[in-house]
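Entry for the shared binder. Reason: the reviewer on the internal report wants the predicted structure included alongside the sequence.
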Amino acid sequence: MFETIIGKIDDFVWGVPLIVLILATGIYLTIRVRGVQVRHLGKALKYMVQNEEGGEGEVSSFGALCTALSATIGTGNIVGVATAIAAGGPGALFWMLVAAFFGMATKFAEGYLAVRFRTLDENGHALGGPFYYIERGMGRKWKWLGVLFAIFGACAGLLGIGTFTQINGITSAITNFFDPDKTSRTFTVLGIQTNMLLVGASIVLTICVGLVVIGGLKRIAKVTEVVVPFMAVLYVAFALILLVCNVKAIPAAVVEIVRGAFNPSAVTGGAVGTIMIAMQKGIARGIFSNEAGLGSAPIAAAAAKTKDFTRQGLVTMTGTFIDTIVICTMTGLSIVIGGSWKPELGLEGVQITTHAFQSGLPFNPNVSAFVLMLCLVFFAFTTILGWDYYGERCVEYLFNGKQNLVKIYRYLFVLAIFIGPFMTVSAVWTIADIFNGLMALPNLVALLVLGGLIGKETKEYFAKQKAPKV
């Protein structure tokens, strides 16, 4: 009954209006900033690894990006793509990429506004994000909208994308690898059937998360600066090997994806999805993965050591490019090539991607499964760290910086890590989708209202760069 109720709420939140609003905002901002995601992508990638000198803030631009990437490169890239294709067919990947292309302009605008309207206290502590550019950019009378965003953001971190989905993905991957036949000793606690492997993994992960998040942003940034690039390179390398080994199957997979986007029944035989479901799942899982329009990344971007709004907007934009255009595309192609999404196989979640890697890579299936499990564990772990930071900043805004309440939220967050593995896959992802959609609404309104300012100042910035220096 619970899953039925939250399923109906999810269908309402992620109905046609929100999907249209997300795409419309991305298209509108793409026009206002004159296709910055195409015209200045090279410059953005250069700025990504080139820290600005003399900027104010708490961490480097690369550190802020890695904190944001830590929250985006996670289960969405491995499990989210799989669940989207399983529910909406291969066409869901097409809509995920469409949303990501326009989402790059959205992410640019979020990074720009984050630095433009952030606050810095006498200790250099930075606080910014949608609640600040709503309040300071749109005016004090709109503060209630910023408060709504902060409430939904804190809930998303504590009950959705930041905890349950990540820890559930980690423990599912560990269980599937070490105990695929479910032979581990099982027992029942409060009516929930579990096993020793699951409990052991939960305890270890809870302790690891607690040790890092207690150190605050700087410790989170230090951990993610090392883990995120290494694991992203490892995952991309294995995905590339899979695609190279199956290069002849790629054209057929692309055709299947495009056909599935506009005529799902032609690809799935009517077994999976409709055009609306393909769009809904593709866009929802895309937002889950890259968080464009969600309003989370600007919270990390506001802490960057920079004085240049546009530069930080470009750096923030690269997050969506790396996360969805590169990594999610590779995952999606691997799944479509391997056919592991098909309903008759009876696979769900991480099992779909694991099957695709095992069938597509020229290695022992256990090696492929281990590498995927390792990537998922570290990706999801860093996502947990990033979302703890986001949630804490939302609480800090709601309660005017009272650190005692922030600490209480931190402890509840660590507790939620332990609870996550014992929830069902479908319930976990549905709850995450709901809070993501609710978070996005206030942020999208602010981006639309402030789009004119972003477009005007961005145009002036690039005009100055082109002007001859005296």
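Summary line for the report: The chain has a mean pLDDT of 82.
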